[in-house]
């Protein structure tokens, strides 16, 4: 059978919006409101508000670039247009080096929610996380059309239940919970913003799926527009109720949402939210795995990775070799997390720092090549804001810098990969 050389074009704007919401609205909404409230107190709401505002020019720039260059390489493609192949390769490696940490962390947060129902040990939680990751790989293996339909249903249910959770927590909100507003000063607000970048990663994933949209020039910007409005509204609502109820003072940040709903509706509703926690963490895992597999496919197609990764499944038209390659990486990180009892916060900070650099590179590239003034302005603003937030990454700035240096040295002194 002749090898299929193109990805199947089947994504609609509704499916695109669901995939984008699923990529962004994941474990961050379950765990980060409590973590950032612990860090900055009620002033953490400023962090959420500012990150939501900062995301707007980035979404505008990504939407413009994705519709202008509908290519599976996403950010790496934008960088290639502005700075050439070497810079594109570095961008791709930065994204992929964050992947082994970001996906298992998200799966572990969801597994903690499920484990809260059944009182699972660390073993059960890590096995559930592994099952979530392997399920996402399996569904993506079968094709993006099935994935898109599944994501529409799951995201609709999540939006409904999260709205229900917020409304249920409203009676617990007290005015005194917002004072003192700045208990630790302004520096923790900036540090919280760096951590919150994990909750606002995912907009760029739609770029990796751009080749598979039926009408990318029309549907990509529409998908992103719908997603950014819904995501920001829910983030602010959940953060506000978390601070206003004061639940973050005494509860495990990973299971705060369960406690919020159980205040009013008891253990049954808490169980429902715990199940939701597992499902909501599946959504970003699903979309990110789809996006990362397309990135590997595009990098292999461009000659940066072995050619075998550019092969598509003859029936499902998916980058199946890339998808199968992810499984052992994720399982290795989960095994290390289990054996070493890793804390989730640093594991969140590593991909956040990497993606901040990726966004800076991508947005500077967009600023250089976009012809319209709105797109240029949005891109340069996003690059500047990403750089400011990156300054709060502390020691985690060393990880992406080390990756850049390593890739540069390898490309200078020997071929990066054997063809």
From TrEMBL:
Membrane topology: Multi-pass membrane protein
Protein name per Swiss-Prot or TrEMBL: Amino acid/polyamine/organocation transporter, APC superfamily
PANTHER family found in the cross-reference section: AMINO ACID TRANSPORTER-RELATED, L-METHIONINE_BRANCHED-CHAIN AMINO ACID EXPORTER YJEH
One of the Pfam families matching this protein, by short name: AA_permease_2
Primary location recorded for the protein, binned into one broad class: membrane
GO CC, any one term: plasma membrane
Record localization: Cell membrane
Molecular functions per Gene Ontology: transmembrane transporter activity
Keyword annotations of the record: Cell membrane, Membrane, Transmembrane, Transmembrane helix
Membrane-traversing stretches: 12-35, 47-69, 90-111, 117-140, 152-173, 224-248, 268-297, 318-340, 352-370, 377-410
Gene3D superfamilies per UniProt: Amino acid/polyamine transporter I
């Amino acid at each position: 059978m002749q090898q299929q050389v193109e990805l199947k074009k089947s994504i609609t704007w509704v499916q695109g919006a669901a995939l984008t919401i699923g990529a962004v609205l994941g474990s961050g909404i379950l765990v980060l409101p409590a973590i950032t409230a612990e860090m900055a107190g009620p002033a953490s709401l400023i962090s959420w508000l500012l990150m939501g505002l900062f995301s707007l020019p980035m979404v505008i720039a990504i939407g413009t670039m994705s519709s202008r260059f509908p290519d599976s390489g996403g950010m790496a493609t934008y960088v290639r247009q502005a700075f050439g192949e070497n810079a594109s390769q570095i961008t791709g490696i930065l994204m992929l080096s964050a992947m082994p940490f970001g996906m298992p962390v998200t799966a572990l947060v969801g597994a903690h929610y499920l484990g809260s129902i059944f009182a699972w040990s660390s073993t059960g939680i890590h096995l559930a996380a592994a099952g979530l990751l392997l399920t996402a790989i399996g569904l993506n293996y079968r094709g993006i059309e099935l994935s898109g339909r599944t994501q529409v249903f799951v995201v609709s249910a999540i939006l409904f239940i999260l709205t229900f959770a917020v409304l249920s927590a409203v009676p617990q909100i007290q005015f005194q919970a917002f004072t003192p507003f700045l208990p630790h000063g302004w520096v923790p607000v900036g540090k919280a913003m760096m951590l919150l970048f994990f909750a606002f990663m995912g907009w760029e994933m739609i770029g990796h799926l751009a080749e598979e949209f039926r009408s990318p020039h029309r549907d990509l910007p529409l998908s992103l527009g719908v997603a950014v409005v819904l995501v920001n509204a829910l983030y602010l609502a959940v953060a506000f109720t978390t601070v206003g109820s004061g639940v973050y003072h005494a509860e495990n940040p990973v299971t705060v949402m369960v406690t919020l709903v159980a205040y009013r509706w008891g253990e049954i509703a808490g169980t429902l939210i715990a199940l939701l926690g597992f499902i909501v963490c599946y959504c970003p895992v699903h979309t990110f795995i789809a996006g990362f597999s397309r990135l590997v496919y595009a990098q292999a197609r461009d000659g940066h990775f072995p050619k075998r990764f550019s092969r598509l499944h003859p029936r499902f038209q998916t980058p199946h070799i890339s998808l199968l390659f992810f499984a052992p990486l994720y399982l290795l990180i989960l095994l290390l997390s289990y054996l070493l009892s890793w804390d989730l916060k640093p594991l969140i900070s590593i991909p956040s720092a990497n993606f901040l650099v990726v966004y800076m590179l991508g947005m500077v590239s967009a600023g250089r090549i976009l012809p319209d003034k709105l797109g240029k302005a949005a891109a340069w603003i996003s690059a500047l804001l990403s750089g400011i937030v990156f300054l709060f990454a502390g020691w985690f700035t060393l990880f992406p810098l080390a990756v850049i240096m390593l890739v540069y040295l390898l490309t200078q002194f020997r071929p990066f990969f054997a063809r």
